[in-house]
Please model this.
Amino acid sequence: MTRVVVVGGGISGLVAAYRLAADGDREVIVLEGSSRIGGKLRTEVVAGVRVDVGAEAMLNRRPEGVSLARELGLEIVHPTPASSRIWSRDELRAMPRSLMGVPMDLEGLRASGLLTPAGLAAVEAERLLGPEEIDGDVSVGELLARRCGEEVVDQLTEPLLGGVYAGHAHRISAAAAVPQLLELVRRGSLVEQAAALPTSDVPVFAGLAGGMGQLPDRIAELGGFTVRRNAPVRAVRRLDPGFELEIGAAASGAEALRAAGDAVPGLPFTETIQADQVVLATPSAPSARLLADLAPAASRLLASCETASVVVVTFAFRAADLAGLAALDGSVSGFLVPPSESRRIKASTFSFGKWSWVRDAGRGALDGEDVVHLRTSLGRHGEAVGLQASDDELVAWSLADLESATGLRARPVDVHVQRWGGGLPQYPVGHLEKVAAIRAAVAEVPGLAVCGAVYDGVGIPACIGSAERAAASLTAS
Model:
């Protein structure tokens, strides 16, 4: 029987293991360096209610996520009709329909008040522009600023991309993040074509009743593979045939002592296991270290990949404390913040307004009293706020911005701070070419595959698709 070791117990590693185990002729082992599986999918109890403190939704119009959830017997839910806002110039303004900032409804854009008359004029002028042939890749910000004006980038594109990548529009690749823009601009006006795109009754997003954090545990429960937690992989070496993996936490000075043949009592235990095939489902930095000898070219490219650190602060308030606040009456699902606003937070999700299951779970949760949950998000690429600030500072900044945006002055009954250091890979101009080169270098090592958010997209469906691609490459071989 073929033994496959998957390094990394996030959603990508778990799905890769699940698909490989289903092949029926493989012993599959997942090695997770921490005490918990799931990566950025995690739930915690806040004021007696288990809620997501990581990813809380997945794209519904991309099939991998909802298909897997159904396959696992999980209940899929969709957001309520509550609408989202953009916090701009001290007002929560209606978010007009757009294709990553390209307006799909000019009347809605005008009514929102997001753009100045000059900004609206630039959008109107784009309708007269002809086709544009893009030579190679270009950033989303550069393309849209050239076509629709910098105000569109600042007020619409930046907050939207900040929510997905925690990045900056003028650094993120259009080919990797929004390839549809490049297809449209080659045909003519972006604004005209965006306005003509058909509307759909299919919800954009989906979630799971009880939280997206259930997904990893269900995969592990039903997957037919073994999971080892607290098993960090320190090295992967090529054998002939197969691989040898070294497991165990590093300890200061231990390697020198071992090399000298001295006993090291009390140091972390190290072991090796062998595998016929290996999947690396780890972030770019640990993947680069593990590939240093196996695939040096891939290692160098992965080492050059940048990430953004973000923080999610989850609050629980007494429902009664929100009475009289229009923005918190359940009709609004949250808001995004353009970076030019110089606020501490970059977004807030009113979970009780966005997800019916969250609101229902909070009923009577506090000694019979109703509680409601909402979240703030902080951190963009290049900012160290999430790593350097204390929990108390992050909570205070979030509460101050929530008060300014919504008028909420109540004190929370419970708070949870979740830091995701280096949690979101960045997709700069040229990202697709880099990924192709990484995969080409990895393909030169028989029995080796890679997957994860750094390659094919940061969303849950994209990570699942990346994992399924890795699994298929190994089953085919």
In short: DSSP finds 20 helices and 22 strands in the chain. The mean pLDDT is 94.
